[in-house]
Amino acid sequence: MILRCGRFELALDRPLVMGVLNVTPDSFSDGGRFLDSHAALEHAQRMIAEGADIIDVGAESTRPGAEPMHESDEMRRIVPLIEKLAGAGVPISADTRKPAVMRAAIAAGASMINDVAALRADGALAVIAAAPRPVAVCLMHMQGEPETMQQHVAYTDVLAEVKGFLAARARACAAAGIARERIVLDPGFGFGKTVAHNLALLRGLPAIVALGYPVLAGLSRKSTIGALTGREVGERVAGSLAAALAAVARGAKIVRVHDVRETVDALKVWSAVELAAH
Ligand code: 7PJ
Fold first, then answer.
1. Quick one: CA torsion of 19, 25, 29, 34, rounded to 10 degrees?
2. Is pTM, for the whole model, over 0.90?
3. How far is the CA of 268 from the centre of ligand 1 (A)?
4. How confident is the model at residue 28 (pLDDT cuts 50, 70, 90)?
5. DSSP state of 68
6. Residue 16, beta-bridge partner list
7. Closest C-alpha to ligand 1, atom 15
8. What CA dihedral angle connects 36, 37, 43 and 46, to 10 degrees?
9. What is the rounded CA–CA span in Å between residue 268 and residue 262?
10. pLDDT at 214 over 80
11. Residue 87 per-residue DSSP state
């Protein structure tokens, strides 16, 4: 299985690490530390040196309760960073829900669009379909909107509903002319989900993997890890590593993480054991 990612072609024969670069003032796990663009650039370069395979740059906080950000503010924060990182040797992903920001990010050199709304915004599918390069796209499941998503959480069968949603969004991409090799699916841990929902999705990940697309899992430092360990956000590395390994053991091909160095080490050991026969 390969992922076409702009000018990159990613072999998915071992799990890949996507390093998170938040350039938002209120991101829950980084607390706005990387708002200054020099610090953000340094952090990205450190994650690449630590072995990140993809860097995900995002400005709009999607943490529970966050309000939407104005388009021009979002562009001002991420576009210059993407331009500076585009030649860094790994694909750069832009974490955005807005078609105009997607278009600007791609023009600035992004190789992937990571959309927590799975290209449901008006015009988003068309921007990806018309992109001058075959950028990859991560389609994530979210129930509700970030502002309210943890307030009215309700599923009859969370795994079946998330799987059905992702399959439908993949079909929408196909209908828009977006090649299959460009698509990544993500159950969206924490996005309108309780701890029990997140655990059911993680246990049931093979059902989503069975749709035939690479699956991305983002559990790093999330509140489910906090709930299971009793740790504050800066103390969740060990719990996050366990979650990342549980995800790759169930077929996830990409893990989205804050702690790149630790995750790369954990995956090297896991891969040496589990992929040795290949
Ligand atoms: C995710 C994300 C995730 C994808 C965030 C955080 C919260 N994008 N953006 N998957 N989470 N694709 O950084 O922990 O799980 S924002």
1. 40
2. yes
3. 23
4. low
5. P
6. 254
7. 218
8. -150
9. 10
10. yes
11. T
